[in-house]
Amino acid sequence: MRILMLVATTVATDTRVLREARTLVGAGHSVHIVGRSVPEGFQDVDGITVSTVGTSSVFRAEGQPSLKGRTLSAPMRLARWTLLPQHRRSSFGRWAEGAYLDAKDRDFDVVHAHDFTALAAGARLAREHGAPLVYDSHELWTGLPREYRPTPLADRRERRLEAELGGQAAAVITVGDGVAAALGRQYGWDNVSVVHNTFPLLPELPAPLPAPAGLVYAGRVAAFRELETISAASRQVELPITVVGPSDDTWLTSFDRGRLDVRPALPLDGASDLIQAAGLSLVTHSDKWENHRLAMPNKLFHAVSLGVPVVATEVGELARMVRTHDLGTLYKPGDAQSLVAAIRDAVEQYPTLVSNVGRARPELSWETDADRLLAIYTQLGEKEQKELP
């Protein structure tokens, strides 16, 4: 089948989108992705083509610098907090219209819309071309953190729109059982399948460490990631703690780093090497937002793919997965003493935890989730064949 994917990201660093696209191409399908401000010269494997729509809004032209990452005065912070909802709606709306215009004259058999930001354009294209729609919800959109002023009316409109357009999808895909259950409760959808954000199995792993040499947090360096708790705990544990990832520099300027070694983002291989050398991965997020309680962070599956146990926040679906497979230890969100105790427990139980992670790797791998994705597309193809005149 010819698959049209829509995603309001740069594509180049979107591991979920690329992993799904590569899997579908490997199974004989072709994939075209319409992304957002894709870096010039980005190329991927044969069978995947990419086009791009720019990032702009009524407040900022394409290519103009964002206020994010700048040190702002109090009045500027207030203005940003006030106007950010309009900027986001304008920016995503312009991208969606541009994505529709880019795709409307292309030939495709299926529209695969990644996240709510692509849903309206995807539903319109699917309807006009008589193609099935796949809605790939990377998170619970209605439960996302809102780092701007409350927008209850807009939130209700978005919920109604997701219910209406997502309800038209031939298949709905999401990242974990928690989000799948929430979508079922909210909208009554019974066609939701789970494709985790897992990683491919490596052909071989280095010999496990006899004991951990440190801990690594590899992910977004910003609010609602429990980094304040990690910083407080860093003063009470002997193991060094490294934080690496793309940062919200505005937030980072006022962050007390404690004894943390905070580094810029690394390519995936570099982050993997760092985690394997340390031997323990920190998989953390807050308990403030519903999406955090339902989320299944990529960091968890990344650690499992490397054979590395985790120290994780005792929150929702993340805690359930860690307990189910005994992948590491848990601590109470916001409680530095609980985190210190969880780190010490992980050190004491380390050989057992390494063995547990090794046993869980095949089930929690992309090879398993790829089969789930391909099964969905096989069903779509069979349905299309049956409906042909």
Automatic annotation (TrEMBL):
- Gene Ontology terms for molecular function: glycosyltransferase activity
One Pfam family linked to the record: Glyco_transf_4
Keyword terms, alphabetized: Glycosyltransferase, Transferase
PANTHER family per UniProt: GLYCOSYL TRANSFERASE GROUP 1, GLYCOSYLTRANSFERASE
What this protein is called in its record is Glycosyltransferase
What InterPro entries does this protein map onto? Glyco_trans_4-like_N
Q: What are the Glycosyltransferase subfamily 4-like N-terminal domain coordinates in residue numbering?
A: 15-197
Q: Which organism is it from?
A: Tessaracoccus antarcticus
